[in-house]
Amino acid sequence: MIDIDHFKLFNDLHGHAFGDKVLAEVGAAIKKVTDDKHFCARYGSEEFVVLMPGISIKKALLIVERFLESIASTNIYNDYIQVSTGIAQHQSNNSYDVLLNKADVALIRAKNAGRDCVKA
C-alpha cells in the first residue's frame, strides 16, 4: 500500500490539476517497477495498492526500493514527491481484506517513522 505524503498540501498550494499530475506521476513510477503479473490500482484519494502474486517480502522490498528511488527523482514544477509504503504478505488462510489491513498497519508504521519510507 502506497500513500503520497502530504498530498493535501499539493492541492492546497498548487490546485487540483497539480494534484492530478502528482497522482499520474506516482502511477507512472509504480508502472515502471512492476510487470504485467502485478495488479496496481488507486485505492482512495492519494493511496495506491499493488498486488504482486508469488513475490516474497524480500523481493517486494527490492521492488519498492526501486519505486522509491524513481519517485524521489521525480520533480514536478520544483516540487518533489515523497511516499510512505506498507508491505504485507498474503497468507493462504486469510482473506484479501486481512492482507489490505496488514498493509495498512505497515503503512501507518511508515508514517509514524517519519514518512518517506517503507515498512513491512
Secondary structure elements and pairings:
Elements: E1 2-4, H1 7-14, H2 16-33, E2 39-42, E3 47-51, H3 57-72, E4 75-76, E5 79-80, E6 83-86, H4 96-112, E7 118-119
Parallel strand pairs: 6-7
Antiparallel strand pairs: 1-3, 1-6, 2-3, 4-5
Task: Please outline what is shown here.
It is built from four helices and seven strands, in the order E-H-H-E-E-H-E-E-E-H-E.
Explain this structure:
This protein is of the alpha+beta class and 120 residues long. It has helices spanning 7-14, 16-33, 57-72, 96-112, and strands spanning 2-4, 39-42, 47-51, 75-76, 79-80, 83-86, 118-119. The protein has a 5-stranded mixed beta sheet. The chain has a two-stranded antiparallel sheet with strand order 4-5. Helix 2 crosses helix 3 (57-72). The chain is globular. It starts with a strand and ends with a strand.
